């Protein structure tokens, strides 16, 4: 079995409910998104849930890493 580390912490020893406080979120790669929200809103949802003010900065980072996602930003998966 391997390991998963973030900033030196072994994430297998960090309870799942503590990981968001470390800045770690989960966005499924399949179609299990919230259908009534746009693609962009689904991406921003973890930042909203944590009350972060830098949601759009994070969104810009995602668009830099995955430029094709920008084209899907307004799509709703209803």
Approximately how much helix is present in the residues? Answer: 25-40%
**Mean pLDDT, rounded to whole units?**
82
Instruction: Please report the total strand number as a whole number.
Output: 2
* SSE pattern: EEHHH
**Tally of separate helices:** 3
Report how far the terminal alpha carbons are from each other.
38 Å
Estimated radius of gyration: 14 Å
Largest sheet: 2 strands, antiparallel
Q: Can you tell me the residue ranges where pLDDT is under 50 for at least 5 consecutive residues?
A: none
Taken from the alpha-carbon principal axes, the silhouette is: elongated
β-strand amount? 5-15%
Order the strands across the largest sheet as they lie in space.
1-2
Computed structural class: mainly alpha
Describe this structure in words.
This protein has about 80 residues and is mainly alpha-helical. The chain has a domain at about 30-78. The protein is about 35% helix and about 5% strand. It contains 3 helices and 2 strands; from the N terminus they run ββααα. A two-stranded antiparallel ribbon has the order 1-2. The chain is elongated and about 35 Å long. The protein starts with a strand and ends in a 6-residue tail after the last helix.
Question: What's the short version?
Answer:
With 78 residues, this protein is mainly alpha-helical. It is 36% helix and 5% strand.
Give the key terms.
3 helices; two-stranded antiparallel sheet; elongated; mainly alpha; about 80 residues; single chain; about 5% strand
